[in-house]
Amino acid sequence: MSDAHNESAIRTPKQLVAVVAGFLLVTVIGIILLASFVTSEKVTGAGSDSQSGQAIEARLQPVADVGYTFRDASAPKVLQSGEAVFTAICSACHATGAAGSPKVGDNGAWAARIGQGYDTLVKHAIEGIRAMPAKGGNPDLDDVEVARAVVYMANKSGASFKEPAAPATPATAASAPAAQPAVTAATVPAAASPAPTSVSTAAAVTAPATEAKSTVDAGKKLYDAACVACHGAGIAGAPKFGDKGAWGPRIAQGKPVLYEHAIKGFQGKAGVMPPKGGSAASDDEVKAAVDYMAGAAK
Fold first, then answer.
1. Residue 62 forms part of a structural domain
2. Is the confidence at residue 118, as pLDDT, over 80?
């Protein structure tokens, strides 16, 4: 039998030397390329720049500053578009049809309202009607912003209203403050005498009661302006005002949880609570409204 198939391809010493040299050359070239790739750019591990000035500054930045743009309170107000107002305020009811509100895009529900005319629709939105609170529960909205939101929703539901333009800026002279009268020694009142100690003590005693009443009043005011739209009738999954059975489990969670859900919003099984009820109230005002409603259910 022939053994030709077992013969090696390297038959001479020169061929062996050439193969070994070729192998070494390929190995050296591979090492050079690998070293060049590794050292071509600086590679750092995760967290290796944690002590840099920029990283430290980012960690120390207040959480409240993230995502917020602060503006000068004295600067002229920039009126929002109708879509922006709808998204922030009106969508709480008009995106779902809660509280009997006409859902945006439902031409049938909007037809009769559109038939009343632009002026009537805007008047009802600004002043409030039935379960619809004045300005959607946000008294800080300008009338033009409310009108723009009405036009946005109506036009999405079959109308063809024209969006109102921003009002003209009043003349500078008209807005200039009147000159203050000169203050003379004769007009300066004499320094008041210090109050007796007993009066000061009485004021200190009555201060907590006055503060508590002020908190209740603030809570009721926000409830009447914004919360009543859902909590007044117990719609959209909202616990009805004064309903102990509906409020009991919620009160049992503790006030911190109630405050967080009211301020940040909450997605429940039966409905949705928009942040701050769709209003622009402060956190303290929202907490006061929560205390007012929870107190009525105890």
1. no
2. yes
Q: What angle do CA 255, 260, 261 make, to 5 degrees?
A: 100
> What pLDDT, on the 0 to 100 scale, is given for residue 55?
77
- Asked if residues 86 and 149 have their Cβ atoms less than 8 Å apart, the reply is yes
pLDDT of residue 44: 57
Which range has highest mean pLDDT (8-17, 114-123, 132-141, 198-207)? 114-123
Which residue segment(s) compose the domain that 270 sits in?
209-296
| Per-residue pLDDT at 231 exceeds 90 | no
- Give the model's pLDDT for residue 234: 75
Number of compact structural domains in the chain: 2
Backbone phi and psi for residue 132, each to the nearest 5 degrees, phi listed first: -85, 110
126: CB partners within 8 A, 6+ apart: 134, 135, 143, 146, 147
89 part of a folded domain = yes
Residue 235: inside a domain: yes
Residues paired with 266 in a beta bridge? 273
Tell whether the model's pLDDT for residue 214 goes beyond 50.
yes
Q: Which domain CATH number covers 126?
A: 1.10.760.10
CA angle, corner 233, sides to 232 and 236, nearest 5?
Answer: 105
- The per-residue DSSP string of 53-115 comes to HHHHHHHHS-GGGTT-----TTSPP-PPPHHHHIIIIIHHHHTTTGGGPPPTT-HHHHHHHHH
